[in-house]
Each structure stands twice: as structure tokens, then as C-alpha cells.
Design a protein that fits this description.
511 residues; alpha/beta; Rossmann fold; UDP-N-acetylmuramoyl-L-alanine:D-glutamate ligase; 2 domains; eleven-stranded mixed β-sheet; binds ligand NAX; binds potassium ion; EC 5.1.99.6
Amino acid sequence: MRTAYGVETVRATERQLMARLPEGTLMQRAAAGLAVASADLLGRVYGSRVVLLVGSGDNGGDALYAGARLARRGAGVTALLLAPERAHAGGLAALRRAGGTTVHSPAGGRAAGATEGAADRPAGGSASDPAERPAGGPAGPTAAEVLIERADLVLDGIVGIGGKGGLRPDAARLAEAAERSRAAVIAVDLPSGVDADTGQVHGAAIRADLTVTFGTHKPGLLIDPARDFAGTVRLVDIGLDLPEEPALEALQHADVARLLPVPGPESDKYRRGVVGIAAGSARYPGAAVLAVAGALHGGAGAVRYVGPAGDAVLARFPETLVSDLGPAKAGRVQSWVVGPGAGDDAATVAQVLEADVPVLIDADGLRLADRDTVRARTALTLMTPHAGEAAALLGVARAEVEGARLSAVRELAARYRATVLLKGSTTLVAAEEGAVRVNATGTSWLATAGSGDVLSGLAGSLLAAGLPARDAGSVAAYLHGLAGRYAADGAPVGAQDVAKAIARAWRDVRD
Ligand SMILES: NC(=O)C1=CN([C@@H]2O[C@H](COP(=O)(O)OP(=O)(O)OC[C@H]3O[C@@H](n4cnc5c(N)ncnc54)[C@H](O)[C@@H]3O)[C@@H](O)[C@H]2O)[C@@H](O)CC1
Ligand SMILES: [K+]
């Protein structure tokens, strides 16, 4: 299991540990790990050009100490100090002792004002806003920008877990220069400008190829949009003694393998669970077929279908038990999936919600379900909205959900007293309490019509097999994401192909 802890927890555990260790030990551990990761990325340290972006906190300290280690191995290291008077004193001294140089960098000075290797001098004037640049003619690159442009590696130590809001203008300009440069960019602890706890990005942020994070992953490193800024994430152990329950957790192959329902010698189709699918309409029969396709691959012993698309379902999947009597009279099931392609059939949704078994509500079902009835249910409820549907359920704009996915999914779970799976490039699953699960196996090719119907069937099937809602949702998202990758293989993919590839995902996870 990959886990992530929020800033408050990191700070508390760091305090405990620091009280027992000589001063500066943790920063040295962090810097050592950062230097190793930098050397790995550079390949050859000797003769390489390394630029450190240094803010006013300990994040900058990490960068300076790592820069000192690289300088000792023969790299040419220049630190751009955003606030020289507040830069980490010990780190500055270490860098200078190792032969590194420092440059004052509110990015105002023109390139002519900077000489590479000029130690301890301002890189030009103090103008830090484009409006303050010398008038007349297009402004050339600043000294800092030229250094970044020529670098092989940029270490982003502008701000770490102490960051508040988006980057300030002078820091934002360095982030833009780093993005333009061909240099590899390593974010120290997390990309400056992203919110460690939520994954929100307010304005400019560093775009990293690699993030070297200390002690634990931070939630923001696993959730979009911030995840996209982090690149590959490498965790450096600094010895933190973290509490049992993380803020966020991400299943890995071994976790999924442990959770998958596997039939024993005594199993028959009823003991393995029957999943009921109440989906599709005369207008959208395909949604029923796809939900059934997902359900057949989810580990339940049988799939029961109710709705107007029975013929279409049977034509594709003759093993389905089809009924046209409606959910209440269809026969026993251990879980229901309701909503995909349901159109305006509110009566079916209402009948399903009355059942005393776990219910998965998706798509049209999310719109048609009576909210008080959902809240009052005693059996499990799993809701599977995409960002647009989540926005409608919360009464906010879609962009608000997309920008703050973690708080949106938590809020939905609390408001509807349900487990909620929020679909997207990083799918999140939140129950009313406990760690939120994040899934990152997906691919953007999965954003295809019908793909969500397959996911619903799959997750519903896992519910019927007896998995709790959080496990059913996160295991389904994991398998579905993998299946999407296999089916797409770098090219557009249809939902049916995703359903077919679930078996391969299942086998790979169990191997
Ligand atoms: N506390 C510890 O034991 C350890 C901390 N470490 C490092 O220390 C970092 C935390 O250090 P700090 O608490 O000093 O905080 P940071 O260095 O993350 O940031 C604080 C400074 O950044 C400035 N700042 C805040 N928001 C900004 C923004 N949007 N734009 C520009 N500047 C901004 C603040 O004015 C403040 O001076 C971690 O992320 C990690 O890199 C590591 O050395 C490991 C050990
Ligand atoms: K950083």
C-alpha cells in the first residue's frame, strides 16, 4: 500500500523525531537522498551545471545542502536566492564551502548583468515585476533565466510543505524559466506552488520531471491537478514514525490480489454472489450491455439483469439471468447496480434503493435518486459520479470539483452518508470515515463513452461478492484502469475492449 500523510501529521512526527536527534539530522538525511536522486538523474555529476532555486525556508535548506554535495563531486552549482537575507544560513555556508556560488535572484537583472560563477552578487537590479523592467524595447532574459536556460539540472527548493497559495511573481517567473529550459527539474519535497494536502494548484507552479519527497508521500503528490506537476515521485526515508491511519492510500498489485474474491471448493454461483443490474433504456440499451460486461468480470457468481434492454443483453451475454419484472420481483441478489443509461426511469431507481443489499448508483441514477432516501439507507451505498455529476450533487461548478477533488469527494461522502468514487484521471474513493483511496492505474484513453458503465458493473459485482464499498470501489477502479491500459496500448479504445481486458488485469494482479 502506498500511503500519504498531510502536513500537520508530517510536522508533528518530525517534531517528535527531531527532539531525539542531533540538530539538523533530518535535513541532512533529506539532502543526502536528494543528492543521490540528482546524481542518478544526471548520470555524470562532474562537470554538470546545477541551478538551485532557493526560497526562504527549510525547503531551500535541503536544496542548498544537496547542492553542496553535488559541488563536492565536481558539479558547477549556482544557487538563485529569492530572499538572500532569509535563505537557510547553514545550507548557504555549506554550499560556499563546497565551491558553489550564490546569486541574488529576484529575476529582474538583464543577462548582461550576470556572469556565471560570479559569487555572492545580485543578478542585476531589483525589479521583480515585468512592469518594472526598463522601458524601451522587448525585455531580454534575466540573469537568472539565462542560468536556468544553460543548466543540466534545476533543483526546486522554493517552497515545500510551508507553502501557502500559488507562487509569488518572482518565484513564478523562475518556474516558467525552468519549464522552458531543457534542464531536468527535480522538485524538493513537492513542486513549489502545489498544495501538499489537497493537490490544488493556484496559479503558477513548478513542473518537475522528478519529485524527491521526504518521510512520506504528501496527498497532493497523488491527486490531480498537482500530481501532474510532480512527475515521477521518489520517496526518501528520513525515519519518521507515522501514525497508523494515513490521509490517503493507494492500492498496489499485492493489496488488490489480497482483496480479490476467489471462489473456494464449496462455492456455487449463489454463494459467490449475484449482482443485479438495473440499467439501460429503450434509448440507451448499450449502457446495459456494458454494465453487464463489467459485472461478468467482477467475481460475482451470476449477473441478473432487469430493464428494457434484455434482448440486447442476452444477444451478447447468454449467461445473464434476465427478468422483466422490475427490481423488487426479479429474484434475490447480493447487490444492485442502478443508473447507467437509465434515462428518466425514476421508479426503478426508487425500487432499487429500497433493497436491503449494497447498491451502486451511477450516471442517470445519481440524478434520479431521492437524496433523503440515499442518506437514510442502512445497507451500503456506493455512488460513482464523474466530476460533472459530482458538481451537480454538490451544487457547485464542475471546475470547482476538478480543482479540489479531495475535498469534493469527502464532502459528498459526508453529505450522502455513502461511499463515493469520484472518477477522473486520479480516481478517489472516500467513505464517511477513514483514509481516502486514490487510484492511479487509469489512462486518459479511458475517458470514452461507456467506460463508466463497465466500471459500475465491475464494482457492483465485487459488492455482490462481499467486498465492503471502499474496497469494491477501489479494486474496481484499479482493475478497470489496468484493463484500460492494456486495451488501449497507446491508441483509442472502446468500452467493450476495456471490459474484455479486465480478465487480463485480474490475472496480472494475482500473478
Ligand atoms: N521540518 C523538518 O524536520 C524537515 C523539513 N524538511 C524540509 O523543510 C520543508 C519545510 O520547511 P519550512 O517549514 O521552512 O517551509 P518551506 O521551506 O516549505 O516554506 C516556508 C517559506 O516559504 C515562503 N512561502 C510560503 N508560501 C510561498 C509562496 N506561495 N511563494 C513563495 N514563497 C512562499 C514563506 O514565506 C516561508 O518563508 C519541507 O518541505 C522539507 O523540504 C526536510 O529537510 C526534512 C526535515
Ligand atoms: K519545492
